[in-house]
Write a structure and sequence with these properties.
The complex is a heterodimer of chains A (302) and B (341).
Chain A (H helix, E strand, L loop, with lengths): L12 E5 L11 H9 L3 E4 L15 H13 L3 E6 L16 H5 L3 E4 L4 H11 L3 E3 L14 H11 L4 E4 L8 E11 H6 L13 E7 L3 H13 L8 E8 L12 H9 L6 E3 L12 E3 L2 E6 L4 E4 L1
Parallel strand pairs in A: 1-2, 1-3, 3-4, 4-5, 7-8, 8-9, 9-10
Antiparallel strand pairs in A: 5-11, 6-13, 7-12, 12-13
Helix pairs in contact in A: 7-8
Chain B lengths: L2 H10 L32 E5 L7 H13 L3 E4 L14 H13 L3 E6 L6 H4 L6 H5 L3 E4 L4 H11 L3 E3 L15 H14 L5 E4 L8 E11 H6 L13 E7 L3 H13 L8 E8 L13 H9 L6 E2 L13 E3 L2 E7 L2 E6 L2
Parallel strand pairs in B: 1-2, 1-3, 3-4, 4-5, 7-8, 8-9, 9-10
Antiparallel strand pairs in B: 5-11, 6-13, 7-12, 12-13
Classes of the chains: A alpha/beta (302), B alpha/beta (341).
Chain lengths: 302, 341
């Protein structure tokens, strides 16, 4: 059984930090403001903003210290990663989860944060929140159904999502713990201490900006590593901003995915609104869900 | 005159080399479990196949001409000339063609026409039983790293990391010295010549001496083999890496994958070949060089490390006998890598 961190109450504190890429405090302003409007206190980590000139929000040690401090602070009920980028891989093995095991809290984000979701699920069996990050709150985004889905998840509302049917869907019903995230990162984790267990689980995948042939390659890796054969079900999110080589690969992303999975029998839904695009519903990963894929609709229920 | 320049000059002039010079028995390396396929002899056959990307018949003509000059024969596989978008035929067609090359006792080596992408889609369809009984040289690099790793890991059979048909220049007079010398290192390796490379020192090299089986190839491909049946074990080995077209942050991430899958801690030595990294997008400068990325990963260890070794997606891409035990010396005056077998 996966441990569910306590849901948030008004007055609870959310830490906001950047464990990977850099984000200025101004770009996170709308998100900080919104958390306050929702009734939460916000504790801003050292890695949000700051004077980093380069790729990361701060040097590895500083990103590690910031995350560790928030992880160990019992007054913080959730850690919100303001952005992804690249960098969690560089610190994941040095994060100590001892206090977190005793007093779990919500870890929120997606993209590079997939590493945290996979690592925590695999090693500590704690639910985490795959959800929009700070930039989703900008330009009026704080009112979108996607940001609101994050709010509802934090408050403890049970997830009941419906999605439009897609011609590539494969009908069926599945029950299992929902795991997954960014395809490129899930492949990157194979064979490491953060390798995501998938047998009997409902796997969800999304990605952005990948070459089409690379999507094929990454899925072949997962397949050959035994990660796709015994799924309970598959949820395919957005594969946005795909690139193609000069000599075209010849298939679109969803066609590539459909063909990789055609040898299996479990239900698959395509076009689920989880992605690097605007559509990115909050998903409490690690928890058990029921996935129903029928001719007319798709439902994902906690 | 040393042998290397002798061969280079005679072949470049198009003369056929005396057959007597090429009769060689395969010397055995230190590891009893290692198998080196028989070196080729005058008149032996090189099969040409497309396990990954497609190629047209006209494009392999320069390679066919060269093979004849080496005193060898060629056989063109069914997948040459086939095209299924980026692949040299459907998965089934490519697998069948490669399979018949593997199984045919008259084919002494398989030269992959090009890399690209696609070897991973057929590797699990191949039956290596005949190959294990009668090993032969598998030749190529880039995507062909899939085959090299699979064959190393599962059978400990040596293979040849080198340029492929698509890199043979049509007009040798226009080819750079590094390019045609790299190509000529292919027959040297196949015909059993002593393979020893000397490379200019790089200020970032880490000194030392190592001996071990040479493994590796394309870094990105290596990452996608992690956790699969083709994943390599690097303990006590000399790991050789090259890549192209990746951003620095992605290269860093791939090195972290090597680290986190235990591929860097027990090495005998590390060889960094050509890394043609993609320039960072403005505003996304990674802030570290390839040297920084690599040295950070190896700082807890003592083994020798060299940079700019002439292998990779570049003009200089010399033939390297993977799985064969090598002696690797990194000294202030230069680097040597010598195959012991």
């Amino acid at each position: 059984m996966v441990k569910i961190p306590p849901y948030l109450e008004p007055g609870d504190t959310i830490a906001v930090l950047c464990p990977a890429g850099y984000m200025s405090e101004s770009k996170a302003a709308a998100c900080l403001e919104t958390f306050t409007q929702w009734g939460y206190r916000v504790k801003i980590g050292k890695t949000l903003g700051g004077d980093s000139q380069y790729y990361f929000s701060a040097p590895d040690q500083d990103r590690l210290d910031d995350f560790q401090q928030m992880l160990d602070d019992d007054s913080i009920k959730a850690i919100f990663c303001a952005r992804g980028g690249y960098g969690i891989t560089r610190i994941i093995d040095r994060i100590k989860f001892k206090q977190f095991k005793k007093k779990p809290k919500w870890i929120i984000g997606f993209s590079d944060v997939t590493i945290l979701h996979a690592h925590i699920y695999r090693n500590y069996g704690v639910a985490t929140l795959h959800a929009p990050m700070a930039s989703a709150f900008n330009d009026g985004g704080m009112h979108s159904e996607y940001v609101l889905s994050l709010r509802h998840a934090l408050e403890g509302q049970k997830i009941r999502y419906q999605a439009e049917p897609h011609p590539f869907n494969r009908r069926g019903k599945a029950v299992g713990e929902l795991v997954g995230g960014n395809l490129c990162l899930l492949s990157h984790l194979v064979g490491t201490d953060s390798d995501l267990p998938t047998k009997g689980r409902i796997l969800f995948l999304e990605d952005v900006g990948e070459y089409l042939y690379n999507i094929d390659r990454l899925l072949y890796q997962l397949k050959r590593a035994g990660k796709l054969e015994k799924l309970a079900g598959l949820v395919v999110g957005g594969f946005t901003e795909c690139k193609d080589t000069d000599r075209p690969f010849g298939k679109e992303a969803y066609e590539i995915i459909r063909d990789i999975f055609k040898e299996y029998a479990y239900p698959i839904c395509f076009g689920f609104p989880v992605s690097h695009g605007a559509a990115n519903l909050a998903l409490k990963t690690g928890l058990g869900y029921k996935l129903i894929v029928s001719k007319t609709k798709v439902s994902l229920t906690e | 005159m040393n042998r290397k320049s002798f061969i280079a000059s005679t072949v470049a002039l198009g003369t056929v080399i005396s057959p007597r010079a090429w009769y060689r028995t395969a010397p055995q390396a230190g590891d009893p479990a290692l198998v080196i396929p028989p070196y080729l002899q005058y008149g032996d056959i090189i099969g040409i196949a497309c396990p990954a990307g497609d190629i047209r018949l006209e494009e392999i003509k320069p390679a066919l001409d060269q093979i004849e000059k080496w005193g060898l024969q060629w056989r063109i596989g069914e997948s040459v000339g086939k095209k299924d978008f980026v692949f040299g035929g459907t998965d089934l067609e490519r697998a069948q063609d490669f399979q018949q090359m593997l199984d045919d006792p008259k084919v002494n080596a398989i030269l992959c026409a090009r890399g690209g992408y696609g070897a991973i889609r057929i590797i699990d369809r191949l039956d290596f039983r005949h190959f294990v009984e009668k090993p032969k040289w598998i030749i190529g690099f880039s995507d062909i790293t899939v085959l090299h790793c699979h064959v190393n890991r599962n059978f400990n059979i040596a293979s040849l990391h080198s340029k492929m048909c698509n890199s043979f220049p049509e007009d040798w007079s226009k080819a750079e010295s590094g390019q045609w010398q790299s190509i000529l290192s292919i027959p040297r390796a196949l015909l059993g010549d002593n393979m020893s490379y000397s490379v200019q020192p790089d200020p970032n090299n880490r000194m030392g001496s190592a001996r071990g089986q040479l493994v590796g190839g394309n870094l990105k491909t290596l990452e996608t083999l992690a956790g699969t049946k083709s994943d390599i074990d690097t303990k006590g080995k000399i790991l050789m890496l090259e890549d192209t077209g990746e951003y620095l942050y992605s290269t860093d991430r791939m090195f972290w994958n090597l680290k986190r899958t235990g591929k860097l801690d027990g090495l005998s030595g590390l060889i960094i070949g050509g890394f043609r990294t993609k320039p960072d997008d403005p505003g996304e400068e990674f802030g570290r060089t390839l040297y920084d990325i690599v040295m950070e990963q190896v700082r807890d260890f003592n083994y020798p490390v060299c940079f700019n070794f002439p292998v990779g997606h570049q003009k200089e891409n010399y033939a390297m006998k993977l799985s064969v035990v090598h002696q690797f010396e990194v000294r202030p005056d230069g680097v040597t890598l010598t195959a012991l077998g």
